[in-house]
Amino acid sequence: MSDANKACAVTNRVQLALQKAGLSISVRKMLASTRTAEDAAAAIGCDVGQIVKSMVFRGCESSRAYLILASGTNRVDENKCSALVGERIERATPEFVREKTGFAIGGVAPLGHPSHIPTWMDLTLLRFDTIWAAAGSPYEVFAIQPKALAQVTFASLIEL
Q1: Are 27 and 44 in contact (CB under 8 A)?
Q2: pTM
Q3: How many other β-carbons are positioned within 10 Å of the β-carbon of residue 16?
């Protein structure tokens, strides 16, 4: 399968996950990269805080994946999140991220993973009417209401 076909299949997986969740949201392809929160905000024309960073962590004892959905303006406090998940966590390697989510770093979507990943969402995102998340590639995103994202990802809300 060509790289273009792989990227299309990944985006289709996100679009299908949105539809299965009952959301009539379309994935949008951007002309500029959305790989970082700053890049995404510039490409979309929104505040960096409206960008959802889908960050995967690995449990140091269990090797379990954990997903933190953070506002583009916030940093994840690994010690605080370790206490929330019940074990020490560390940033996941690119290989671990791809294995657990099916996505490469820079395009990790908050949904559409092969299996459920325990998820926590930054309360800061609730300040916005609309937030933007990656849709499987560094050029594709989707807009969603924060409460809807928390609901479809089964995320627990946290203060980062």
Answers
A1: no
A2: 0.92
A3: 12
What beta strand segments (E) does the chain contain? 28-29, 51-59, 65-71, 89-91, 119-122, 131-134, 140-144, 156-158
Could you list the residue range(s) of the whole structural domain that residue 87 is in?
3-158
CB contact at 8 A, 97 and 128: no
Cα separations in angstroms, 13 against 8, 9, 84, 138, 141: 9, 6, 29, 15, 13
With H, G, I as helix, E, B as strand and everything else as coil, classify residue 53. strand
- CATH number of the structural domain spanning residue 134: 3.90.960.10
What are 84-122's pLDDT values in tens digits? 999 999 999 999 999 999 999 989 999 999 999 999 999
Structure-token match 């949201």, residue found: 25
Comparing CA positions, the residue from 66, 74, 54, 56 lying closest to residue 123 is 74
Domain count across the chain: 1
Tokens coding 41: 């905000």
Residue 128 in tokens: 């916005």
